[in-house]
Write a structure and sequence with these properties.
Layout: H1 15-24, E1 29-33, H2 40-46, E2 50-67, H3 82-85, E3 88-90, H4 97-109, E4 116-118, H5 122-134, E5 141-145, H6 149-152, E6 155-157, E7 169-176, H7 179-182, H8 184-191, H9 197-210, H10 216-226
Parallel strand pairs: 3-4
Antiparallel strand pairs: 1-7, 2-5, 2-6, 2-7
Length: 237
């Protein structure tokens, strides 16, 4: 906006919807994509109609996690706790890359076919997690890093000795094909952005936890004031 663009922002939680919209040109930029591992199936389907503007954070990871007080240490241990868990793993949106990895990699790799992967939404997963942690009950949820819930609920990643959840990957800005040619100054500016763990974590904490819903703009302003050297120099208007 500072260099003359009018920006429309919309929250969409379904990765499949976002990749389809990017490919069709209905959305210009998807600013928090996981195309290397988590969303690779969408890139295989739509990648020829999408362009990568750059990665800004390189330590993202899918996890299965438990509260710190849990006795469970590894995904391999989960069958021993089937009764106390009610044979349930609490997941997020059905179309999420994390859900796909959980259903098609983790569950078969660890022989967890008797468990139900409960999918609905991230909000519903967090509600279940809050209820369990308030009562100090055992629960296993599908999570990822970076994500504010890890610190808020004092979560611990379960060991994944089979590597079923994949390796660490980066978060990318993806754009609809042709965006960089049409808006080269924006594409170049976005491509320079880099954030470390502290910067990303503090941004997410401010937006999600310290400011009210609907007040994201003020949260970001506060974060930029505390982190003045993160953003690249803006292109000239």
């Amino acid at each position: 906006e500072q260099i003359g663009y009018t920006i429309e922002h919309e929250d969409v939680s379904e990765a499949g919807v976002l990749y389809t919209a990017l490919a069709q040109g209905d959305v210009d930029i998807y600013p928090s994509a996981w195309p290397e591992v988590t969303h690779v199936k969408y890139m295989e389907e739509y990648g020829d109609r999408i362009e990568d503007l750059g990665a800004y954070y390189d330590n993202a990871k899918l996890t299965w996690a438990v509260p710190e007080y849990s006795e469970i240490q590894s995904i391999e241990d989960i069958p021993e706790y089937a009764d106390v868990l009610g044979n349930r793993i609490i997941g997020i949106e059905p179309s999420a890359g994390l859900t796909d990895a959980s259903q098609n990699s983790v569950i078969p790799e660890y022989g967890l076919d008797s468990f139900e992967l409960v999918t609905s939404s991230t909000t519903a997963m967090l509600a279940e997690l809050k209820g369990a942690t308030d009562a100090e009950k055992e629960i296993v949820v599908t999570l990822w890093r970076p994500f504010w819930a890890n610190s808020t609920f004092n979560m611990r990643d379960l060991d994944d000795p089979k590597g079923a959840l994949g390796e660490t990957e980066a978060l990318h800005f993806l754009a609809t094909k042709g965006f960089a040619e049409k808006h080269p100054e924006v594409a170049d500016w976005i491509g320079q952005l880099e954030m470390d763990d502290q910067q990303y974590g503090s941004l997410e904490d401010l937006v999600v936890n310290q400011y009210e819903e609907g007040d994201e703009a003020n949260a970001i302003t506060a974060w930029l004031e505390a982190n003045p050297n993160v953003l690249p120099e803006l292109p000239k208007a």
